[in-house]
């Protein structure tokens, strides 16, 4: 089993189609919706984490392309500059997925788990030393 | 068992003083009891590292040729205004000062990317800082403009002088309103969704010496990685705050005014920070040694997170409107667990003061004392405590009526 984070771009004529459902049914994939933004009559964007066998993930992405859904790997990366980090907890309270978290409740060390990060960028401005940046 | 600071200093000089941090003393007292630990341990090191807005630095930049008098004129450091209402070439820069053209909260919440706290950090880090002075010119100080790079190494004196630091306890901030608010205690999500606190709890200096038995005017401290001193009680010092049976205040109480040589400091511990929607400030690292002169002082220094309570305060309405209601009291063990209960709801917590950094400072001070590099001082005067302490209160506002 492996997992892959991808961005799906839905043209407006595909928004009302049960496309993601097919990924489960026909390709045996499980998924997490990390972000979704659909504007009626315009277009939709969704960040998905697909979990399944490598070959099935590939087939799933091929199917999406055939349906007119363009995809790209989630290329935005949140990076913490640990030299700038002051080890407060301002980001921890804001992070919606616990990617920024307290690793050790005795020392109160702040840590970052990039696998859990959905690049929502909510942490960037609340960080007092501005130690968090988004890279493309 | 009674010891003196002079005796402890003799042991420090010989390299035989027993020094532990304010976390280690807790286990020791639990295992051995106060009497034995007060005899065996000489010094407990406490520390804190958090945003402290009433911080700033003054310096003397040296006379230019021809001479200029900044006093009565205007001065900027990296475009951040400094206070110039002194003699010719002395300036004071405060942590919350902002460039004149910073958009502030015009588009709310503002970024506050750079301010006085960052200027102080840049100076400490040895980076060049742009000094601009506009003066009116006199016979003895004819020059009217100055625009020059300066560097801390060339300043005659550079002194951190903070009028209120190391608050003895602080509020736990929550937001009862229906929109996100942006405070000096961080971003508070709507509908009571997170709670931010700001104290090192069991490591915090004044929580380990609740009645200021050893910490007073003249106490030598670890400041920003260098040496500093307590010079006075801090502004808003309020020893009247309600206390638990163990003497520990349940509300913001005592504070310290402190001073130290900026040239000795380290930018890791004197750090400009930005609170979105609020402004800039300075994170200050402070370590304070507590000499275990007797069992009472030892007992206070062994205070644990679970015995220190703070008030949960709504920052959407109660705090800004100067009201006093609290939503409850929680202890620092609960706060550090990551979740507290407020109004029957489980609320995620986060610290704004860094416990991990405070621990690093407490350990650094411990090592310096053990190596004989840091001697203790006798306080020369007490911080106000008891019935004679000055009262702390809100503004008695008397609105001015303009003549018609």
Descriptive overview:
- The complex is a heterodimer of chains A (136) and B (404).
- By secondary structure, chain A is α+β, with helices and mostly antiparallel strands.
- Chain A contains 3 helices and 8 strands; from the N terminus they run βαββαββαβββ.
- In chain A, the strands form 3 sheets. A 4-stranded antiparallel sheet of chain A has the order 2-3-1-4, covered by helices on one side. In chain A, strands 5-8 form a two-stranded antiparallel ribbon. Chain A has a two-stranded antiparallel sheet with strand order 6-7.
- Chain A is elongated, with a radius of gyration of 17 Å.
- Chain B has 2 domains: 5-52 and 165-370, no CATH class; 56-160, no CATH class.
- Chain B starts with a helix and ends in a 34-residue tail after the last helix.
- With 404 residues, chain B is an alpha+beta fold.
- In chain B, strands 1, 2, 3, 6, 9, 14, 15, 16, 17 and 18 form a 10-stranded mixed sheet that branches. In chain B, strands 5-4-7-8 form a 4-stranded antiparallel sheet.
- In chain B, a hairpin with a 2-residue loop joins β21 (339-342) and β22.
- The A-B interface holds A 86-90, 92-94, 102, 105, 107-110, 125-126, 128-130 and B 49-51, 109, 111, 113, 186-187, 189, 194, 196, 271-276, 281, 283, 336-338, 348-357, 359.
